[in-house]
Amino acid sequence: MAEVKKEEEKSLNFLEEIVEQDLQSGKYESIRTRFPPEPNGYLHIGHSKSICLNFGLALKYGGKTNLRFDDTNPTTEETEYVDSIKDDIRWLGFEWANELYASDYFENLYEFAVKLIKKGLAYVDDSNSEEIAKQKGTPTEAGIRNKFAERTVEENLQLFSEMREGKFKDGEKVLRAKIDMTSPNMHMRDPIIYRIKHAHHHRTGDKWCIYPMYDFAHGQSDSIENITHSICTLEFIPHRPLYDWFINELEIFPSRQYEFARLNLNYTVMSKRKLLQLVNEKFVTSWDDPRMPTISGYRRRGYTPESIKNFADKIGVQKRENLIDLSLLEFCIREHLNKIAMRKMVVFDPLKVVITNYTDDHELVKSEDNPEDDNTSHREIPFSAELYIEKEDFMENPPKKFFRLAPGQKVRLKSAYIIQCNEVVKDEAGNITEVRCTYIPESKSGADTSGLKVQGTLQWVSIKHAITAEICLYDRLFRVEDPSNEEGDFKNYINPDSLQVIKSAFCEPSLKNAKFDQRYQFMRKGYFCLDKTSSEEKIVFNRTVTLKDTWAKEQKKV
Ligand code: ATP
Ligand code: MG
User: Is 46 in the pocket of ligand 1 (CB under 6 A)?
Assistant: First the structure.
């Protein structure tokens, strides 16, 4: 098995094969890729796949990657998104060669359009969008070219210039490429390349009232930047002939487009439009809500760049769409956190334990910060006669194989002593208020001469030394695997229990100095990090992930 995996790791993905061929054949001396986000939302985990691919290829083959904001649509784009996108890419650990904006090319693109007009390959059409759609035909029925396609070059140049000057209202005219109304590829049936939109643009302000369509902007922007390999997702396959047509007719740098399958993850949605709805309609608190599949959400939740890059790597580059199991992402983060997280003891739902034979005020016991690390540091934890353990770690009438605390039973308190439960104290209503135990002085961890063997080890905190913290436990945001493919609104499938808050958990005192960039494993609980809202007055932890994959088990119970 290990052998097979090694082989797989060595083999190239299809994009690497193409790049190697192009370099070997001398087609290019070096490669240039680009990551082209539209600044209309925050980046999500799907984008991280594209980022890792574009930056990864250039890194591997000594090339460069541009960050290009695809900001040709003035109405949906905002500077806040531009800033967040840059933050997220940097956080993932990538550096772009140039920060560029498609809107910087508006003048070039305009000239490109003029060139097409001059070649008799573009015309101004006065039809409205319904007429254009109707004349386009269907995939099985050829379209019809209308009379506006007969306009002379001079007339088209004049009208296009007037479109730019603002002589017409939105939708009154469009510029179309003159290609082939009978093409089986609908994108080739005289596509619209410019539309009129009297709208303010986040960078060009009110300079323009005509804006290029995606297809007219993307390939030409690639070409202007000498992008050698323009990588995009599968839905752009039918756009490729048009991409090539523009580049050929304009006689500009021959960038080439290659497509791979987009990353889809189960139990979430990925489109920015849908994520925006979740934010606007307050199903989550913000774009970086730790339940969001955004890079900033994962970051806040405690994911590491390494784990996300490793995940992107594990999925590989596919040519067919599929739905990736969230548990693979969770596996990647557990694997990393297991190596780097500091171990701590925290009790969420306390049960008081009184050690009746412990007469000292307190002592300090030593515990490893990370048993996975051969050179681990240690910390000292105060132990005293009054402790909290987790309520669920005690049962008055336990079933067989309950290896935790019960009357007459012994357990080890992590890094401290073995204790035995002797008495259960209840209030008038019959609720257990404390359990009384004795400790075995010779059983101290690291110096245990008691000869006793116990099965269970529990986390605990000394009551008078404990500090409190709020703990946010997150679960999947949706109840179903593929909410976008369910009947009706995807928001009907939100998991109502995706956030559970423990107002006051009891933590070992060393967590008073918890750091934002440090990751923690709360023993037997999961991996945690400080939330960005955490302060000295109120410490807040997010659960990044549970210790084991519990979802499958819980689903079966339902
Ligand atoms: P969305 O539909 O989520 O809004 P988009 O494709 O419109 O996504 P862009 O900002 O245009 O988002 O995407 C920037 C780059 O990231 C594009 O090259 C796009 O193909 C790629 N990308 C977007 N979503 C995914 C995904 N789920 N998996 C892989 N790549 C993606
Ligand atoms: Mg897009």
Answer: yes
Non-local (6+) Cβ contacts of 405 within 8 A are 353, 389, 393, 394, 395, 411, 419, 421, 435, 437, 456, 458
For residue 385, the model assigns a pLDDT of 98
Residue 171 to residue 128: CA distance in whole angstroms:
7
Quick one: pLDDT at residue 322? 87
Q: Given ligand 1 and candidates 262, 269, 275, which is best to mutate, with the most ligand atoms within 8 Å of its CB?
A: 262
**E strand residue ranges, 243-357:** 256-260, 263-265, 322-324, 342-344, 346-347, 350-355
What pLDDT, on a 0 to 100 scale, did the predictor assign at position 367?
97
**Ligand 1, atom nearest to 262 Cα:** 28
How far apart (Å, rounded) are the C-alpha atoms in residues 359 and 237? 76
Q: For residue range 464-482, what is the model confidence (pLDDT) as tens digits?
A: 999 999 999 999 999 999 9
CB 217 within 8 A of CB 226: no
| Number of other residues whose CB lies within 10 A of the CB of residue 148 | 18
Q: What tokens appear for 300 in the block?
A: 């806040």
| Residue from 15, 35, 50, 273 whose mutation best tests the ligand 1 pocket (most atoms within 8 A of CB) | 50
Compute the mean pLDDT over every residue in the chain, rounded to the nearest whole number.
95
If we measure between CA atoms, which residue out of 101, 107, 103 comes closest to residue 36?
101
pTM listed for this prediction: 0.92
- Which of 81, 227, 233, 308 for a ligand 1 pocket mutation test, highest count of atoms within 8 Å of Cβ? 233
pLDDT tens per residue across span 356-400: 999 999 999 999 999 999 999 999 999 999 999 999 999 999 999
Ligand 1 atom nearest residue 49's Cα: 29
d(CA 263, CA 434): 51
Residue written as tokens 């490669």? 31
Closest CA to ligand 1's atom 4 = 272
In this predicted structure, what is the pLDDT of residue 4?
46
**pLDDT confidence of 551, banded at 50, 70, 90?**
low
Give per-residue pLDDT as tens, 184-222. 999 999 999 999 999 999 899 999 999 999 999 999 999
B/e letters for 279-311, b = 16+ CB within 10 Å, e = fewer, are: beeeebeebbbbbbbbbbbbbbbbbbbbbbbbb
Whether the CB of 317 sits within 6 Å of ligand 1: no
Query: Is there an atom of ligand 1 within 6 Å of 38 CB?
Result: yes
Mean pLDDT of the region 58-79 = 92
By 3-state DSSP, what share of the chain in percent is helix, strand and coil, each rounded to 5? Answer: 35, 25, 40
Catalogue all structural domains in the chain, each as residue range(s) with its CATH number: 2-260 (3.40.50.620), 272-342+469-557 (2.40.240.10), 346-459 (2.40.240.10)
Assign residue 189 a region (left: φ > 0; alpha: ψ between -120 and 50; beta: otherwise): beta
Please state, in angstroms and rounded to a whole number, the distance separating the CA atoms of residues 478 and 380. 41
User: Which ligand 1 atom minimizes the distance to the CA of 41?
Assistant: 4
Q: How many CB atoms lie within 10 A of CB 438?
A: 18
262 flagged as catalytic: yes
